[in-house]
Amino acid sequence: MFNLVIFGPPGSGKGTQSENIINKYGLVHLSTGDLLRAEKNSGSELGNKIKELIDNGNLVPDSMVEEMVKKNVAKNKDAAGFIFDGFPRTTTQAAWLDNMLAEHGQSVTLMLALDVDDNELRTRILERGKVSGRADDQNVSIIDNRISVYHQQTQPVMDFYSAQGKFVSVDGIGSLDEVFSRISTAMDQSMLQCCSN
Ligand code: ADP
User: Fold this and answer.
1) What is the pLDDT of residue 113?
2) Which residues make beta-bridge pairs with 4?
3) CATH of the domain at 69
4) Distances from the Cα of 120 to the Cαs of 31, 77, 133, 188, in angstroms?
5) Spans of the chain, pLDDT less than 50
């Protein structure tokens, strides 16, 4: 099994590049942003709580997200591996993921971080907001809050995987093909190391 954590700030291209990765490597995509938006749009009581947090650019509590991840991993027992997109976003989530995967005799193979500077992120997210319809993509102060939440709460997750020798950073600036080619190189190398025998 190859379990990839695709990592990076909001707007760094995680979702877009995940599609390319699925096409080439056939992993199961698990995006906590997508799962949370589905719950948010369901109109449930939980969905309304989630809406309040997401629309203001804040994180949803760890336990809520972990529950969703657990259910979706269990649903895909035959997967060749997962792409965790938007998760883990805190070091608590990262430690939880290690434990949950260990219960299945699995582990994170590689954490691949897309490196994009804050100015480029703001431009990209506002551009995406014109078509995504996402409230959190359309307001500059909410976008800035998401970027600052990323720096404060999410960036430390890099050190978590770096300490395990699993962290690789990829330049996220360039055409979609250029960035994907960098991702493929990193994944192929990691696959050779982890899964060749
Ligand atoms: P982006 O990468 O553009 O921020 P996502 O779709 O990954 O978009 O996430 C959208 C929002 O969903 C986040 O701003 C946050 O409120 C919530 N969210 C997604 N994943 C997590 C997570 N792992 N932990 C807590 N909140 C999350």
Assistant:
1) 98
2) 83, 110
3) 3.40.50.300
4) 22, 38, 20, 28
5) none
CA of 72 to the centre of ligand 1 (A): 16
Give the model's pLDDT for residue 197.
52
pLDDT, tens digit (0-9, with 9 covering 90-100), for 78-106: 899 999 999 999 999 999 999 999 998 99
Question: What's the gap in Å between 33 CA and the centre of ligand 1?
Answer: 5
Ligand 1 atom nearest the C-alpha of 85 is: 7
Pocket of ligand 1 (CB under 6 A): 10-11, 14, 32-33, 36, 53-54, 57-60, 65, 86-87, 89, 93, 136, 146
Domain count, the chain: 1
- Number of alpha carbons in the 13 Å side-chain half-sphere of residue 81: 23
Render pLDDT for 133-149 as a digit per residue (tens, 0 to 9): 889 999 999 999 999 99
Q: What is the predicted pLDDT for the residue at 193? A: 84
Which domain, by its residues, includes 113?
A: 2-196
CA separation for the pair 51, 135 (Å, rounded): 10
Alpha-carbon distance of 160 to 158, in angstroms, equals 5
One DSSP character per residue, 99-155 reads HHHHHTT----EEEEEE--HHHHHHHHHHHHHHH--GGGS-HHHHHHHHHHIIIIIT
Residue 147 half-sphere exposure toward CB, CA atoms < 13 A: 20
